[in-house]
Amino acid sequence: MPDLSRVVPVSERPLDAVLDAAATLMAVITVDGDLVHRNRAWQRLSDPRAVTLFDTIPEGEHFAAREGLARVAHEGSPVEVELSLRTGDGELHPVSWTYTALPAPDGAVTHVVATGVDSTERAELEERLRDLVALDALTGLIARRRFEEELERHVADGRRYGMTGALIVLDLDNFRAINENHGLRAGDRVLIRVADALTNRLRETDLLARMAGDQFAILLPRAKPPEAERVCQALEEAIAQEVRAPGDRTIEASVGFVPFTDTMSSVEEALLAADAAMYAVKAGHPRHVRRLRPID
């Protein structure tokens, strides 16, 4: 068995060992800018010959670096600074730095911990996160928030150049019974098949989204009302022909649409009108009522 008396507690390990374990750029720096320790992530990226912070950044950014160190020494609270880190081959990487004070026992701040995140990598990560938020995790379609943003752009363009197109809202009939009788996974499989069926019947210029639950929406950017009506019929047929509930039962959908007009004032108005048309169909009204005028 190992001699546990020789194991050094985490709290007593050298700070540099903790820094080396971090994946982000980290270093201990004096308030004058001397590099006391750089972790492995920083060593792999920056010039290994550098002995001060100022050896690793362009001369034009020295003032910002000194000001940041002075602020953390005086205020004690973390300070954020945007600086460029020079790599071993001379390239510059934009880095977002956070300086955190390391006060001595008497309270004086002589050293700081600098933590850096490559701004390029952060931008790529933020873009990936935006994509995750914009897409529906189950179907891979765009989600409600992104769809409404696209509707806002469409309406804004319409105000400048003239309104065109139509908005379709589609809702599955008796979908709740599938979840209740066969489980949520069975319902998920139906939603995925519906998304595939709708995608296969639409053009690349059309925008399809899963809004929530079993409700979908489609933006037809240039369609006139007769064409929008034909698309609604085609989508109903696609679901009825290509999607089956457990037990090989037919799935039906209620579909309504609203044309964009110059009197339409907002995206919310368009969604409410398309919803009203869809619910009229769901309530059993004839299909010709699926088109409603925008709400006054």
| Average pLDDT, all residues | 83
Helix content: 40-55%
Shape: elongated
Count of the separate structural domains: 2
Adjacency order of strands in the biggest sheet: 2-1-5-4-3
CATH class of the largest domain: Alpha Beta
What name goes with the CATH superfamily of the largest domain?
A: Reverse transcriptase/Diguanylate cyclase domain
Structural class per helix/strand content? alpha+beta
Number of strands: 12
Radius of gyration, CA atoms, in whole angstroms: 30 Å
Q: Which spans have pLDDT < 50 for at least 5 consecutive residues?
A: 1-13, 292-296
CATH fold type of the largest domain: Alpha-Beta Plaits
Which strand-content bin applies to the residues? 15-25%
Question: Termini separation (Å)?
Answer: 81 Å
CATH architecture of the largest domain: 2-Layer Sandwich
- Indicate the multimeric state: single chain
- The helix/strand order is HEEHHEEEHEHEHHEEHEEEH
State the major sheet. Answer: 5 strands, antiparallel
Q: How many helix segments?
A: 9
